[in-house]
Amino acid sequence: MQLKNDLLIRAAKGEAVERTPVWLMRQAGRILPEYRAVRESLSGFKELVETPELAAEVTIQPVDILDVDAAIIFSDILVVPEAMGCTYEMIEKRGPIFPNTVRNEQDLRKLRVADPHEHLHYVLDAIKITKKALNSRVPLIGFAGAPWTILAYMVEGSGSKTFSHARGMLYTNPKLAHQLLRMITDTTISYLQAQVEAGANLIQVFDSWAGILSPAHYREFALPYISEICNAIRNVPVTVFAKGAFFALEDFSKLNCETIGLDWNMEIDKARQQVGPNKTLQGNMDPCLLYSSFDSIQHETIKMLKEFGPHRHIANLGHGVYPDTDPEKVKCFVQTVKEYGTVVGEAKS
């Protein structure tokens, strides 16, 4: 069935659009009281992720409430290590904790390359339920973490300011690091292909901890595996969002993907020069802007839109929306993008 609103897909492909499409990373989540109501009825975050009907419900909430141009399936990048046999716990106000880490060959032997239909079926079921409920109103985005970011959690055992254990492995045991990255990449490729088969209209790869690597290590331990993933995804556009990897923008221009996500530290004009004219850019408003006044949000959003220009741009934040953000401020950001784009389009016609 043809999408009623396909702005995101057309913008990703570089086709003409009437206005800039807009959605937000982490739009399905704690900023919405409706999400909190669902979440508080359950034992925890993981139960929500692993219950397809409820994951679908909270996926659709921001489409209804915030009026964004896309839904992104409610899940987590850490379902991949879990499927591989490296389980995690989500601790409130602390984040993910891995009771068992991967530090040596013996730890590696306990892992498997996961079968998405066996080990991640709940995400695929959530995609199918969401697609049916959306009834082609907007595209549905599927996603996974980039291999380096997943390795960082599996080796470190939690979030970290330095990821010293994970980064240390790249120096002390690069062979083991590549073996683990190989398993993560193989799992991720089959997982994302299954998401597309289940109905995802676009795929995003999140390299959340890209910026903590040196450029040399990023090119050895991260970029080749992201490139493999991009090459393996067919029939839908792919977005790569590597937070902090300003040093790799020129490398990203060579990836077989349609869109490059920018964080708020990246300068738009420089990024456009480095990425080139054949990629769409996504982003890159500072999430903290949404703490400011409505007038300030409107002013800064229009400034951002002018800097990106009307073509090959998907409006978004430069990272996920923060959980204590007022939903009305998010609506202001979304509506400003929509109204500015409409005015610009009418002026041209």
TrEMBL record:
UniProt pathway annotation: Porphyrin-containing compound metabolism; protoporphyrin-IX biosynthesis; coproporphyrinogen-III from 5-aminolevulinate: step 4/4
Residues annotated as domain Uroporphyrinogen decarboxylase (URO-D): 21-30, 141-157
CDD domains, per the entry: URO-D
EC numbers on record: 4.1.1.37
An MF annotation (GO) of this entry: uroporphyrinogen decarboxylase activity
GO cellular component: cytosol
Principal location listed in the UniProt entry: cytoplasm
Binding site for substrate: R26, Q27, A28, G29, R30, D76, Y153, S208, H319
Pfam families assigned to the protein according to its UniProt record, in alphabetical order: URO-D
Keywords: Cytoplasm, Decarboxylase, Lyase, Porphyrin biosynthesis
Location(s) in or outside the cell: Cytoplasm
Top-level lineage group: Bacteria
Function of the molecule: Catalyzes the decarboxylation of four acetate groups of uroporphyrinogen-III to yield coproporphyrinogen-III.
NCBIfam families assigned to the protein according to its UniProt record, in alphabetical order: hemE
The protein's name in its UniProt record: Uroporphyrinogen decarboxylase
Species for this entry: Pontibacter korlensis
Annotated gene: hemE
